[in-house]
Design goal:
The chain has 3 domains: 78-184 and 208-381, Catalase core domain (Catalase HpII,  Chain A, domain 1, Beta Barrel); 451-527, Hemocyanin, N-terminal domain (Up-down Bundle); 540-691, Rossmann fold. Helices cover 28% and strands 15% of the residues. It is built from 19 helices and 19 strands. Strands 1, 2, 3, 4, 5, 6, 7, 8, 9 and 10 form a 10-stranded antiparallel beta sheet that branches. The chain has a 7-stranded mixed beta sheet with strand order 15-12-11-16-17-19-18, with helices on both faces. The N and C termini lie far apart (72 Å). Bound molecules: CIS-heme D hydroxychlorin gamma-spirolactone.
């Protein structure tokens, strides 16, 4: 019989507890020798050479010399968090995976979000795919969903992975550019590999500029299998939907964030958990009966395809909450080792050739970067259930196995550890029948590369389309090779003729005269971010103020924001405190115009107070702050004399006559000179914050405004 090992939300935290180390009282060597001096090396005389016998110096330096391990060959830059997953209802009808069987059981998880192309020290906010990896510590061992924030991939077969990654990474001669796809070798490859076109449409869209990790979707990408107790198998695709909605930066903003705060997404994740505003995601599945495998006009084993939600709805099955920051970045976030091959009974693979290759590559990658098969002994990777087998020795073996028996079968050790029979829960591979010739060939069912790229394009709002076209002008504008640019225009012409013409115009190249493929006209509402959840929880507002600010207005707004779990920083010219107009308590300044920037906030508020507004008007940075927020489509609010600062900023499309009357709300700019209705003003501002961005604003320099 298999043993039962109940798991709860605390199981992983408790297992990590055994490894946490507090600083000790005494400074010692690694072997515990007390040390009296760590500031001077042992020398032959005060000005003499250092002596070889200085064991403390040797150990300190050689430990330091070996601090770095190879960074991940992709997804090197990342941030992690602990949390839990709880199912809404039992999924036992579909899978025998125990962690999905009981809504009362919270399974601990460790999640790592990442960018793909940049190195470990690169900026967070760059245009890139984001990794979305989840390790579930279940009673049947670790289960990893190693996904991305896009539902499809560049290539169909894992043997092309080194090629796409070589093409996307900095070019080999000069190692440029860092964390960017905007370079010739990437687009050369893409223009020659048409299966990448669907992914390219997603790559050029707002999806690759997520505002935060908490505002992006996650996808398992491949089709997987679920198998129930009766041995019935179904195909499954995974979707993570953020409860905070799916929201993005604009490109200009993302580029500025990368300079102002390269750690922006890592920091926001960390700080929101510290504040108790926990990122939450709903897990959903699309389930396809085995007999329906061939009923679609694409192959469900092809990772460049989605299953449109109109064809197979996403069924929400549970929720994940990230509620604890790691104690140590290296020990947890860097050493965590995800592997798509980590599955539990009830979950199995499909024959997707991209997935099949991944089943080998991740283990190999962990062996290389962590240095030994014993990486599973590292605290973050250890399962929360017992594990036992006859693997032995190797570098950094952590366990002291006490049995003389290390083989199977055996009689000297009672034939332990013994295999677990399938009926008692032992893993069995789904006995799918397969036959075929050994061939290096792509299935003909994988050959339509454009229909779903067109579906994606058709599903975008006009603003999303404008920004996608702009992204293509930026990316291909950096490719000073006409042949590659022309090949890409031809590829776009297979997706949509208008799109191809618009790309060509921006590059200054001849536009195609007729479509290469007629647009099929189909769309899917789920593909546009415009239809996402609207909530203000977790947003971050800048309040611009100086000495003489109206304390009552400020207090009302701050109170209303915090009631909605929106945090706010007082931003002023100098640090320290500012005095309120009514002589009340002085107010702590959180950031100065030098230590922060408009791009780091989701919205801006300017409270009244004549003296405060005069000071802000005299300080150019306050106006820049508002201009940038406006340019990036963010909600902006001013009350009392605060309206004067908004007027001085001369925001395009905002009717000043209307603003000077009672409260007005135009294109996400909320203004009210009348401060008798601060409650209604706060509500209007919070409603605007829920919208996240006001895309219809006429912002000069964007594709929609000439
Ligand atoms: Fe991969 C890391 C996601 C295809 C080979 N991949 C890695 C990570 C994520 C993904 C999120 C970071 C894991 C972490 O946080 O530690 N990869 C994907 C997705 C893919 C995909 C969603 C397509 C559906 N990957 C893919 C292929 C191969 C790899 C086809 C190779 C055949 N991926 C790797 C790797 C990495 C990796 C080289 C680098 C570090 C690591 O595994 O742990 O093995």
């Amino acid at each position: 019989m298999s043993e039962q090992h109940p798991v709860n939300e605390q199981s992983k935290d408790r297992s990590l507890e055994n490894y946490r180390v507090e600083p000790g009282q005494n400074l010692t060597t690694d072997e515990g020798h007390p040390l009296s001096n760590t500031d001077d090396s042992l020398k032959a005389g005060g000005r003499g050479p250092t002596l070889l016998e200085d064991f403390h110096f040797q150990q300190k330096l050689s430990a330091f010399d070996r601090e770095r391990i190879p960074e991940r060959v992709v997804h090197a830059r990342g941030a992690g968090a602990h949390g839990y997953f709880e199912p809404y209802e039992s999924m036992a009808e579909f899978t025998k995976a125990k962690f999905l069987a009981d809504p009362a059981v919270k399974t601990p998880v460790f999640v790592r979000f990442s960018t793909v192309g940049g190195s470990r020290g690169s900026a967070d906010a760059v245009r890139d795919v984001r990794g979305f990896s989840v390790k579930f510590y279940t009673e049947d061992g670790n289960y990893d969903i190693v996904g991305n924030n896009l539902p499809v991939f560049f290539i169909q077969d894992a043997i092309k992975f080194p090629d796409i990654i070589h093409a996307v990474k900095p070019e080999p001669d000069n190692e440029m550019p860092q964390a960017s796809t905007a370079h010739p070798s990437f687009w050369d490859f893409i223009s020659l590999v048409p299966e990448s076109m669907h992914m390219i449409m997603w790559l050029l869209s707002d999806r690759t500029l997520p505002r935060n990790f908490s505002t992006m979707q996650g996808f398992g990408v491949h089709t997987f299998r679920w198998v129930n107790k009766e041995g019935k198998s179904r195909f499954v695709k995974y979707h993570w939907k953020p409860l905070a909605g799916v929201h993005s930066n604009v490109f200009d903003e993302a580029q500025k964030i990368a300079g102002k705060d390269p750690d922006f997404q890592r920091r926001t994740l960390w700080e929101s958990i510290e504040k108790g505003i926990y990122p939450e995601y709903e897990l959903g599945v699309q389930i396809v009966e085995e007999e329906d495998e061939h009923k679609f006009d694409f192959d469900i084993l092809d990772s460049t395809k989605i299953i449109p939600e109109e064809l197979v709805p996403v069924r929400p099955i549970g929720k994940m909450v990230l509620n604890r920051n790691p104690d140590n970045f290296f020990a947890e976030t860097e050493q965590v080792a995800y592997q798509p091959s980590n599955v539990v009974p009830g979950i199995d693979f499909s024959n997707d050739p991209l997935l099949q290759g991944r089943l080998m590559s991740y283990h190999d990658s962990q062996l290389h970067r962590l240095g030994s098969p014993n990486f599973v002994h590292l605290p973050i990777n250890r399962p929360v259930c017992p594990f036992s087998n006859n693997n032995q020795d190797g570098r950094m073996q952590m366990d002291i196995k006490t049995s003389r028996v290390n083989y199977s079968p055996n009689s000297l050790g009672g034939n332990l550890p013994a295999p677990v029979a399938p009926e008692d829960g032992g893993f069995t591979t789904y006995p799918e029948r397969v036959e075929g010739h050994k061939i290096r060939e792509r299935s003909p069912s994988f050959s339509d590369h454009f229909s779903q790229a067109t579906l994606f394009w058709n599903s975008l709002s006009n603003g999303e389309k404008d920004r996608l076209v702009e992204a293509s002008h930026f990316e291909l504008g950096k490719v000073k090779n006409k042949e590659v640019q022309e090949r890409m225009i031809d590829r776009f012409n297979h997706v949509d003729h208008e799109l191809a013409k618009r790309v060509a115009i921006g590059l200054g190249l001849p536009a195609p005269t007729a479509p290469a493929t007629e647009n099929h006209g189909r769309s899917s509402a789920a593909l546009s971010q415009e239809h996402t959840t609207k909530t203000a929880k977790g947003r971050h507002v800048a309040i611009l103020a100086a000495d003489g600010v109206d304390g009552a207005q400020l207090a009302t707004l701050k109170h209303a924001l915090s009631a909605m779990h929106i945090s706010a920083d007082i931003v002023s010219k100098l640090g320290g405190t500012i005095a309120t107009a009514d002589g009340g308590d002085s107010i702590e300044v959180d950031k100065t115009f030098l230590t922060t920037a408009s791009v780091l906030y989701d919205a801006v508020y300017v409270p009244g107070g004549a003296k405060s507004i005069e000071a802000l008007k005299a300080h150019g940075e306050a106006l820049t702050f508002i201009h940038e927020a406006f340019k990036h489509f963010k909600p902006i609010a001013g009350s009392g004399e605060g309206v004067d600062l908004l007027m001085q900023a001369d925001l395009k499309g905002i009717d000043s006559a209307q603003v000077n009357g009672k409260m007005s709300a135009q294109l996400g700019v909320i203004a009210s000179r009348d401060v008798s209705e601060m409650g209604a003003f706060a509500t209007a501002f919070i409603d605007a914050i829920k919208e996240h961005r006001f895309w219809t604003r006429p912002v000069p320099g964007t594709a929609s405004v000439e």
